[in-house]
Structure formats: structure tokens, C-alpha cells
Design a protein that fits this description.
By secondary structure, this protein is mostly beta strands. It has 3 domains: 36 residues, no CATH class; 33 residues, no CATH class; 136 residues, Sandwich (Jelly Rolls), CATH 2.60.120.380. The chain is built from 1 helix and 21 strands. A 5-stranded mixed sheet has the order 11-13-20-15-16, with no helix packed on it. A hairpin with a 6-residue loop joins strand 7 and strand 8. It is elongated, with a radius of gyration of 45 Å. The protein starts with 15 loop residues before the first helix and ends with a strand.
Length: 280
């Protein structure tokens, strides 16, 4: 029997182009239509935001914690505080927490974290330890010398009352009698101050000038022993005369305090001393 001029497709129908497209779609992983809603199809590789790993940190007091509460760093053990800006980190203390210090007439107070220091400017210009010093002298009825004057004192009648006010030079922490004198400068100028014994009884003298009578930090000048000079009484120790203290100082107008102190040592005793003040 004769056959027609075209061959039948024995592969199940469809043109070669349609079959290739169907295979291509299956190979690309397109899910087959199962008749179930799309959102019911299982996707094993998917996870929710709650399952995401913890990557952020925050400050809890002075500790750095992860977002799940795990301790990362203890800043306090490193003398540091926890800071969140610009990023969470331990930052070294600016100052020691809960402390107060005195610097150049300013009281500096540190907060409890060590992250901030707050200054308090002292009206008197001086601080004493952790507080501003008062410019009111607690010692009443002090003798006053106002320049170009001389005053005498019998140190055998004076106690060692001002010992806590000792100056910084030589034997200024002397254990002998002492006293305070108020000096008034009416105008700015240079002043020469001298303290010496009366030449009959040897007295080891010490001379201190300060701005506030009971604040050592307000010291302006201190002289223990002056340089030996012709006519000085004995002894002259290494080129210095322990029986005479002398200083020359530029002062602004105002009130100052002169501490006259002595040191009882060796052959030195209590006795008469003379204070001389000369504005130059």
C-alpha cells in the first residue's frame, strides 16, 4: 500500500519546538503545578528574622553586652567607661570616678563614670585639697605691717601654733615658735622683706610670704637662710646665714601674709627677732 508524503509523529504529539521548550522549563527548576496553593510549598532553605545570628552590642552600665545579653567586655576592670557613640566601646577614664582635685585655683570634680570633669573656679584664686579656699583668714587680730616698717617679736613667748602652715624651703617645717603678720601693699611694687635675730641669742629664722594665710598652695616666696654678708654674726654655714632670712618680691596691690618661723636645732634657741619690710 502506498504511504503519504509525511511521516507521523510517534513521540506523543507536539512539534519539536514545543517539546524543547517544555524540557527547558523543567530543567530550569520551575515547580510543577501540584494543585496546592503557592504559599503551601515547602522551602527548606528559608528562615525567619528571629533565627538571624546576633551581631549588635550595647552598653549595660560599664559593660559591653551582645544583643542576647552575653558579656563581651567589662570596661570598669580596664579603668574605662562604656560609650555607645560613635560605636560601642570601652573608653579610658578622663578622670578617676568620684574624685576631686585642686589645680591652679580650680576645683575639678569627676563624675561617677570617669567620663566628665566639671570645674569650679575659686573666687579666692586658690583651692585647698577638694574645696575652694576662703580668702578670710581664720586667725584674728594679726599684727599688720604696711611697708617701710620694722616690728620686733619675742619668740620665747610665741607658741609653735602655725606649724601646719609651714613653707616649702629648708627648715620651714621648723619646730620652733612662729607667728603670722599681715602685710598690706597699697599699690603694685617690689618689696624687700628680712627676718633676723637680735644678735644676742642665735635664732634660725624662716620667712614665708603667701596670698592666703592658711593655704600653703598660695605661697609666693620662701627664704630659709640668706647669703652670708660682711658683718653677719657667726655661724655662716656653707655660704648661708641661718640667723637671717631675706627675699625680694614683686607684689600686686592687696593683702598678703608673712609667716615668721624658727627651727630649734643644735645651738639655736628661741629669742628676739626683727621683721623689716621695705618697698623699693
Amino acid at each position: 500500500m502506498a504511504t503519504s508524503g509525511c511521516l507521523l509523529d510517534r513521540t506523543g504529539g507536539g512539534t519539536p519546538t514545543d517539546r524543547d521548550a517544555a524540557v527547558s522549563v523543567r530543567d530550569a527548576g520551575t515547580p510543577l503545578d501540584t494543585g496546592a496553593p503557592l504559599d503551601a510549598v515547602s522551602t527548606p532553605d528559608a528562615f525567619s528574622a528571629e533565627d538571624a545570628p546576633c551581631t549588635t552590642t550595647h552598653c549595660d552600665g560599664e559593660r559591653v553586652l551582645s544583643c542576647d545579653g552575653a558579656l563581651i567586655e567589662d570596661c570598669a576592670s580596664q579603668d574605662a567607661y562604656c560609650e555607645e557613640s560613635p560605636e560601642v566601646a570601652c573608653v579610658p577614664w578622663i578622670c578617676e570616678p568620684d574624685t576631686t582635685r585642686c589645680e591652679d585655683g580650680v576645683v575639678q570634680r569627676c563624675n561617677e563614670r570617669g567620663s566628665l570633669e566639671t570645674p569650679e573656679l575659686c573666687a579666692s584664686g586658690f583651692c585647698d585639697g577638694s574645696v575652694c579656699a576662703s580668702d578670710v583668714c581664720p586667725y584674728p587680730d594679726l599684727p599688720i605691717i604696711d611697708g617701710n616698717d620694722t616690728m620686733s617679736f619675742d619668740f620665747c613667748d610665741q607658741p609653735n601654733a602655725a606649724a601646719p602652715l609651714a613653707g616649702s624651703c629648708g627648715s620651714a617645717t621648723g619646730n620652733g615658735p612662729d607667728t603670722l603678720v599681715q602685710l598690706v601693699a597699697d599699690e603694685p611694687g617690689r618689696v624687700q622683706i628680712e627676718l633676723r635675730d637680735d644678735a644676742d641669742v642665735p635664732v634660725d629664722t624662716v620667712l614665708v610670704v603667701r596670698r592666703i594665710c592658711d593655704v600653703e598652695a598660695s605661697q609666693i616666696a620662701c627664704s630659709d637662710d640668706a647669703l652670708c654678708a660682711p658683718g653677719d654674726p657667726d655661724p655662716c654655714e656653707g655660704g648661708f646665714q641661718p640667723r637671717r632670712s631675706q627675699l625680694v618680691q614683686d607684689l600686686e596691690a592687696g593683702t598678703y601674709y608673712i609667716l615668721l618661723d624658727t627651727d630649734l636645732r643644735d645651738s639655736f634657741e628661741c629669742g628676739q627677732v626683727e621683721l623689716r619690710v621695705r618697698f623699693m
